[in-house]
Amino acid sequence: MVDMGVWVENSTKKGWLTSIFELGAWFGCLYSGFLAEILSRKYAILVNVGIFIVGIIVQCSATVSGASCILGGRFVTGLAIGAMSVNVPNYNAEVAPPEVRGSLVALQQLAITAGIMVSFWIDYGTNNIGGSGETQSEAAWLVPICLQLIPGIALGVGILFMPFSPRWLIHHGREVEARRVLSSLRNLPLDHELIELEFLEIKAQSVFEKRSTAEKWPHLVELTPWNTFKLQWVAIGSLFTTKAMFRRVTVATVTMFFQQFTGINAVLYYAPSIFAALGTSSNTTSLLATGVVGVAMFLATIPAVLYIDKLGRKPVMLVGALGMGICHMTIAVIFAKNQYQWGTHKAAGWAAVAMVWLFVVHFGYSWGPCAWVLISEVWPLSNRAYGIALGASSNWMSNFIVGQITPDLLTHIKYGTFIFFGLLTFGGAAFLWWFVPETKRLTLEEMDVVFGSVGVAIRDEERMREVRAEIGLEDVLRGLGGPRIGESEDEKSRSPKGEVEEIEKVEAKA
Predict the structure, then answer these.
(1) What is the pTM (predicted TM-score) of this model?
(2) Range 409-418 contact pairs with CB under 8 angstroms and sequence separation of 24 or more
(3) Which pLDDT tens digit goes with each residue over 163-183?
């Protein structure tokens, strides 16, 4: 039997045992863009699947080599998961038909919650292999770890049969191959007008990005690995150079900070410990209650997928934050009154457990999916990829901190843990109310007005219009009877007078 000893008995080391995975994920998030650009999205996913499998194997070797293999293996698997948390959604968006790309953002969160739900019930099912306590078999923890190989291998094998991203092919000059891939993905002839239209739209975006790079950083235009590596950091650094862009950075990074400091992953990572602290009678009962957490969050995420575009981001997130904060404070009160008498006050313990379940419901329909949608919408076209990467980085680092501190909080301040996360959740609501705009149905130009960077989106649009005309996309759209850039109800807003009227309209909204 592997002796984890101090790694599960000491609260600080227990925090490291959990959070070292998130630290690895943070590093993985940082290298994900570089790997996806030089190797392709497809091969970047394949490489990270290999890293993930190595991490699982290292963890399994703990039966021979000791607890250090658990820590090392978790860091390695974290690298892979952090990178794939960026690469996989990016690949999906680039191969999916345009009409379903928006739905994939919310479906990603639904898939994540489904995976969490399944993992909780696997833990519950394997907990008593060989008995409990001293008689518990090593299979009780080895089986859940090894089962992770199944989705990992399935992804690795499956991606071999998937095509390269058409966008990556076009960006790297492989246009003939990109047309063939689009034809195969859409099941349409190579010369079909819809294939031509989508090909030109992707090409327009690629040329636009290259010209934006050439204007800002002409020395990094050539797509060499070293230039690609440098471009990531230079582009992210440029987000901090103007007050208007820094406001967007603040919205993206602080929103993800508050998403994690709602305490959601404190609950997901340490749910059995939390439920034990709330008076559940056994480890099996704690794991059963944890399984309900997974089901509750999965079901709560479904309405967000269906209604996020109708209700908006900000109202839903405000309601969710208030709900989560009230749940935290209610748990704290119940905990404070009953922490030394759970045995004779079982109803109070289950009331606190129910509040934890209600807490994850509030997170599931609000900050879970909506925060990711929000941070993808606040950026101008030319900065979006780097802005989203910055937000994802903030998410993983905040995740790491929460995983690290939660065992110490539960050990030393007990019910104060819930007051701590409750106050931060209310702080997130305040930040959202005063500093975050509603992004639903705002155009890029309107977003510029809100953040005080008027003209950025207009310049981006002018450059895109030039590119589309140059590569023939405007002619194709005209032939199909579709809209061209500049032909819309806000045509007048592109005149000096119209631009002023548009600014006044949006400022009135804000």
Answers:
(1) 0.84
(2) 409/266, 410/11, 410/270, 410/273, 410/274, 410/277, 411/11, 412/11, 414/277, 414/335, 414/339, 415/331, 415/332, 415/335, 415/336, 415/339, 416/332, 417/266, 418/263, 418/328, 418/329, 418/331, 418/332, 418/335
(3) 999 999 999 999 999 999 999
